Request: fold
Amino acid sequence: MVSAKSGKAMADNTAGASFPWDETLAELSGPADGALNIASACADRHVTAGRGGNVAVRWLGRRQERRDITYLQLSDLSGRAAAVLTSLGVSPGDTVAVLLDRVPELYAAALGIWKAGGVYCPLFAAFGPGPIKARLEIGKARVLIASEELYARKLEASRGALPQLEHVLLVSEDGGLSRPHDGCSDFRALLAATPAMEPVATTADSPAFLHFTSGTTGTPKGALHPHRAVLAHLVTAQTVFGLGEGDIFWCTADPGWVTSTAYGVIAPLVAGATVLVDEADVEPRRWYGILHDEKVTAWYTTPTSIRTMMRFGAALARSYRENSLRVVASVGEPLNGEAVSWGQKALGVPFLDTWWQTETGAIVIANAPGQGRRPGSMGKALPGVETAVMRCDGGVARQVETPDMVGELALRLNWPSLFSNYLGGDGRSGACFRDGWYFTGDLVKQDADGFFWFIGRADDMIKCGGLQIGPFEVEGMLMDHPAVAEVGVVGKPDLLLREVPVAFASLNPGFEAGDALRAELLSFARQELGVAMAPREITFIAELPKTNTGKILRRVLKAKAVGEPEGMDLLPSLPACPGRFDDE
Ligand code: WT7
Reply:
């Protein structure tokens, strides 16, 4: 099954093994032997090279405000933020959580945390109090930098239940804080009053950033990345986006996403470009205006945003066809061929699909310029990345040698931005690491020319507008409601968001299934989980379908969600490996 029978040869996926990462390390590391700090590489390095006057961050506010931060200012601001954190007792390796929208302080915070040797852990503003609290606990955050509004709405009430959270630094909308908050300080005031410090000596292996991904078990897992990841950010900034001085790079990602850390913060800065940050949410007319007026040269967004723009029609897009765009790309979910060619017609440049995930820390597969493109495919492995398509054969993982055969995408562990371990998970001993490979959990096929095609997830993750939602976290929260006896959450296909979470619940005695309870449960979920993660529908059923071993049969629920009578396999079945694909 895994040997070449078709006569067609599989693409050579081993070219990545010999990439000169040492040269990138030498380019980015500081004068001290073995030193590497993301913030120094992203800011101080440019100042030393005489580029301090270039604009590092161009921020556009919701209400037409704008602010430019030069590399020199960013270097100073981040040194001040590092000094503030250090004075609060942050030591190398400590987690500092960040709950901010797309505001200028995000940059001082992220780079300041790295200069203090801390671990930058951004959280989604769209999450409700439950998921935020869970992540602060698992990440053992000692300090939180948050907007005053988000803190007041999502955390203030439960602060007492987070004893390890020693300090909260608040950022207000404008000027000072609107009122005093117990145990909190004003981040901006502290920045203004504290002189900058030099970065602490971190190395390529020092932990740098932490993002939570919804695990396949009950709790979210934190994927921890080392400072070394910046090597991959520089290389992909160049190979995928061709970024350098003079570029205006716009990444639309929410700060809670690894896409923001990697491409909304690190990649454009380490490449010396100007990163454009728009505080507002998706609004196609505004977006076209920004692309045009701000002379954006490279744009990174999501298929959901592209579909939203497509809904506004090509005529609107064409009125902005005069633009400076060189590259537009997307990530997070499959980008269909139609969207690729729509970009070409409407904006004059095709959308390029890129593939990666929280764990890979940076783009690893892309329709990158110079590598050829194939609309509808995720692209090819980038230089420096070694890939394989794996299937289990008698319990042993083997590489697929036949083109177009579905298997799990695996990556060699020699890629610098690969996560080092999971917090709240099973480190590197878990099912995803085996025989020198990292198993991504994505099912793909690779054609004879080396292009990868996305098939689906090998697990139960739900992809909603690019956000990965673990059904277990949603189920756990719903179970907290006294009416719910058992609950199963699955993804239901959606034209815009690709999938939305929907729940099937059985009830405890004494509760009556009906519209009133449904409305109550939906609002309970939105309140606790936040709008992004909450189920959009709840269906009451007498009993959940189960396997012999008592596990919820999600494919049966999935079939119910789409209105199919029988639970048919929605994905091609793969032979089971122990600890993998063994949900039934
Ligand atoms: C999962 C990772 C990458 C940062 C944002 C998401 C899916 C990602 C694509 C793509 C089809 C994609 C995969 C992956 N995904 N890019 N181009 N085509 N699916 O990070 O939340 O860790 O999600 O998103 O299933 O494993 P994430």
